[in-house]
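User: Can you help me understand a structure? I only have the sequence.
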Amino acid sequence: MIAYDTLSEALDGLKARGFAIDFNLAFDHLKCSATGLCLNPAQFEIVEHHRFEGMSDPDDASVLYAVESLDGTAKGVLVSAYGVYSESISEEMIRKLKIQHV
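Assistant: Let's start by predicting it. Here is the structure, written out as C-alpha coordinates:
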Protein backbone atom coordinates (compact mmCIF):
# COMPACT_ATOMS: atom_id res chain seq x y z
CA MET A 1 0.00 0.00 0.00
CA ILE A 2 1.25 3.47 -0.87
CA ALA A 3 1.92 5.77 2.10
CA TYR A 4 0.69 9.35 1.80
CA ASP A 5 1.73 12.29 3.96
CA THR A 6 -1.46 14.35 3.60
CA LEU A 7 -5.12 13.77 2.93
CA SER A 8 -5.03 15.87 -0.25
CA GLU A 9 -2.02 13.91 -1.55
CA ALA A 10 -3.86 10.65 -0.87
CA LEU A 11 -7.03 11.87 -2.61
CA ASP A 12 -5.02 12.91 -5.66
CA GLY A 13 -3.13 9.61 -5.71
CA LEU A 14 -6.26 7.48 -5.43
CA LYS A 15 -8.11 9.49 -8.06
CA ALA A 16 -5.12 9.02 -10.41
CA ARG A 17 -5.48 5.27 -9.79
CA GLY A 18 -9.16 5.28 -10.82
CA PHE A 19 -10.94 5.92 -7.53
CA ALA A 20 -12.89 8.80 -9.08
CA ILE A 21 -16.27 8.69 -7.32
CA ASP A 22 -16.73 10.85 -4.23
CA PHE A 23 -18.84 8.92 -1.76
CA ASN A 24 -20.58 10.34 1.30
CA LEU A 25 -21.46 8.28 4.35
CA ALA A 26 -25.17 7.83 4.95
CA PHE A 27 -26.70 5.91 7.85
CA ASP A 28 -26.70 2.51 6.14
CA HIS A 29 -25.05 3.09 2.74
CA LEU A 30 -22.51 5.07 0.75
CA LYS A 31 -23.90 7.62 -1.69
CA CYS A 32 -22.44 9.67 -4.51
CA SER A 33 -24.31 12.97 -4.59
CA ALA A 34 -23.24 13.72 -8.18
CA THR A 35 -24.61 10.48 -9.67
CA GLY A 36 -27.06 9.19 -7.08
CA LEU A 37 -25.17 5.88 -6.89
CA CYS A 38 -25.75 4.12 -3.56
CA LEU A 39 -23.88 1.10 -2.22
CA ASN A 40 -24.94 -0.81 0.88
CA PRO A 41 -22.24 -2.63 2.90
CA ALA A 42 -22.86 -5.92 1.06
CA GLN A 43 -22.11 -4.24 -2.28
CA PHE A 44 -18.60 -2.87 -1.69
CA GLU A 45 -15.19 -3.64 -0.29
CA ILE A 46 -12.60 -1.38 1.30
CA VAL A 47 -9.48 -2.01 -0.78
CA GLU A 48 -7.24 0.31 1.24
CA HIS A 49 -7.44 2.97 3.90
CA HIS A 50 -5.30 5.86 5.14
CA ARG A 51 -5.56 7.51 8.52
CA PHE A 52 -4.64 11.14 9.08
CA GLU A 53 -4.22 12.96 12.40
CA GLY A 54 -4.63 16.70 12.76
CA MET A 55 -1.29 18.45 13.27
CA SER A 56 -2.51 20.98 15.82
CA ASP A 57 -5.71 19.38 17.11
CA PRO A 58 -5.96 15.64 17.88
CA ASP A 59 -9.73 15.87 17.36
CA ASP A 60 -9.11 16.94 13.76
CA ALA A 61 -8.62 13.45 12.34
CA SER A 62 -9.99 11.45 9.44
CA VAL A 63 -9.81 8.17 7.57
CA LEU A 64 -9.73 7.97 3.79
CA TYR A 65 -11.19 4.77 2.38
CA ALA A 66 -10.64 3.49 -1.17
CA VAL A 67 -13.91 1.76 -2.05
CA GLU A 68 -14.70 -0.64 -4.89
CA SER A 69 -18.07 -2.15 -5.70
CA LEU A 70 -18.10 -5.95 -5.72
CA ASP A 71 -19.26 -5.97 -9.34
CA GLY A 72 -16.24 -3.85 -10.31
CA THR A 73 -18.24 -1.05 -11.89
CA ALA A 74 -17.56 1.66 -9.30
CA LYS A 75 -14.37 2.84 -7.60
CA GLY A 76 -14.28 5.83 -5.31
CA VAL A 77 -13.20 7.43 -2.09
CA LEU A 78 -14.85 8.10 1.23
CA VAL A 79 -13.43 10.58 3.73
CA SER A 80 -14.78 10.03 7.21
CA ALA A 81 -14.06 11.99 10.35
CA TYR A 82 -13.83 10.14 13.60
CA GLY A 83 -14.10 11.17 17.20
CA VAL A 84 -16.41 14.06 18.05
CA TYR A 85 -17.17 14.70 14.36
CA SER A 86 -18.12 11.17 13.37
CA GLU A 87 -21.48 10.50 11.75
CA SER A 88 -24.28 8.31 13.08
CA ILE A 89 -24.22 5.06 11.09
CA SER A 90 -25.72 1.57 11.22
CA GLU A 91 -24.05 -1.35 12.99
CA GLU A 92 -23.51 -3.07 9.64
CA MET A 93 -21.72 0.01 8.28
CA ILE A 94 -19.60 0.26 11.45
CA ARG A 95 -18.47 -3.34 10.94
CA LYS A 96 -17.72 -2.70 7.26
CA LEU A 97 -15.62 0.41 7.95
CA LYS A 98 -13.82 -0.97 10.98
CA ILE A 99 -10.11 -0.96 10.32
CA GLN A 100 -8.44 -4.26 11.05
CA HIS A 101 -4.91 -3.81 12.42
CA VAL A 102 -2.64 -6.74 11.58
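Now, to help you interpret it: The helical segments are 7-16, 91-97. Strands lie at 21-25, 30-31, 38-39, 44-52, 62-69, 75-81. Let me know which part you'd like to focus on.
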